[in-house]
Amino acid sequence: MSTLNDYPGRAPASREKRLDSVSAYLGEARALLKEYGGAEVDQRIRTFSQSAPDDLFVALEVLSGLRDTGVIIHGPRGCAASRLRQSLAEHAGPWLVTNLTQRETIMGADSKLRAAVAALYRRYRPKAIFIVATPPVAINNDDILSVVGELSEELGVVILPIFTSGFASKSSAQGYDAVFHSFIKYLPQPAAEARGEWINLLATTESEPDRREAQRLVAALGVDALTFPHGAAVEDFSRAATARLSLPLDFDAGHYLGEALQNLHCVPFLQVPRPIGLAGTRNWIAALGQALGKEAQARELHAKEAAAIAHVVEAAPLRGVRVYVSAAPATALGVLDLIQELGGEIAGLTVTHLDRLHLEAVAKYQERSPALQLHIGNGQGFEEINLLKRLQPQLYIGSGVHLVQAAQLGIPPVFLPRLPILGYAGIQAFAHETGKALRNQAFLSSLAARARLPYQEAWTRRSADWHIKQEVK
Question: Tens digits of per-residue pLDDT, 53-89?
């Protein structure tokens, strides 16, 4: 059993150090898997990189799902821009930005931070306050921990610092780890208690329909679930630490928290892929059933639910359709299976990053489609457009800003973040939305005839990996 001494430092180690995360690659999946099987994974860099979300963006997204909390974004006001999009989230609480000036980003602004914390607490009285350090603060090295110590005692409220830097890791998924590292380090550790009868349903940034579907399936096995942290309060951390087990909705996002609860509080962590598609959902339910001694109930549940949507799968609405997928790896690799279950063909794959958590799924993908290449890049529109023009897919499924560029090429796009994707309800929603996108192409034809891509022809004549180079050590 681990202790808090096993979680040193203000922030977690980077995903590159812990999991050999790769953020730049284009080539055969087989070659990358061979590197992971060796002593060291070769890192690549981009000589030209377009804009992409960083760990701050993801951390703020996670915090927007917590109840009864306030958030202080410690940095220039531009660092708070992504929080504007999340202000209408279901549980989003009050937030403010310290709005550091150029001088303050260099010389520090401890006093300004103290005033911000006091003002937020006196006006809104949240049960907990998060101070999110931004990349400029990682440079000026403000003494946030002293502010936390002084004001926690003075105001009588839980204050948690979260240290994002924007450059410690090239993977935006580092933002999940930063938030959960703060939970582990700075929330009061629960007293030793008897194990509860509930499970942790680890949810981070899933949509409300997806959370409801997962909660429905867990309830169908006669199990109480604590959905955490999305929709929970910080005091629920104590309940999470005494659960029977933790079941993630996205093992990539919830991995750091799940492992910490297992290491520190002996809560078993089921590292099972996302419940996407028939096979993925069956495996997710089966893992829970096995852990709870309810294997027969899990099999019966799957049989009943699969029979109810058999007509959707048998219709094979994507039969013969070549599909390009671009999303975070845990989602993208699950969607590949769903596409093939609905009769579709995989034209190409882009994932935001890849690490040791995904090797089993990538190996399966490589065996089924050995000729397909794997593209790793987050926010790299030039590289994706280059691949789309060469591969000519008939459908684009993604979660990034490049859906517009796919549409400008006349390729029907489907926006994943607005589409329920988990469980049996997700299969029906996915089949409906992709079918609708394929049927309604008049606008796309008109758009493709008139639209101008933001890249000159000389750019798109280059290979998609033109700017991806081996890192020199």
Answer: 889 999 999 998 899 999 999 999 888 877 766 655 6
Report the pLDDT averaged over residues 388-399: 93
Q: Among 166, 141, 356, which Cα is nearest to 252's?
A: 356
Give the integer Cα–Cα distance in Å for 144 and 107. Answer: 14
| Burial class, 33, CB count within 10 angstroms (exposed 0-12 / middle 13-18 / buried 19+) | middle
Write down the pTM of the prediction. 0.93
Q: What angle do CA 248, 250, 254 make, to 5 degrees?
A: 65
| pLDDT tens digits, 152-172 | 999 999 999 999 987 788 889
Structural domain for 235, as ranges: 199-307
Contacts of 336 (CB under 8 A, 6+ apart): 325, 346, 349, 365
* Long-range interactions of 118-123: CB distance < 8 A, separation 24+: 118/151, 118/155, 120/70, 120/72, 120/94, 120/96, 121/70, 121/151, 121/155, 121/157, 123/94
Q: How far apart are CA 68 and CA 91, in angstroms?
A: 8
CB 166 within 8 A of CB 51: no
What CATH number did the domain enclosing 222 receive? 3.40.50.1980
Between CA 347 and CA 388 the distance in angstroms is 9
Asked whether residue 106 is domain-assigned, the answer is yes
Share of the chain above pLDDT 90, in %: 64
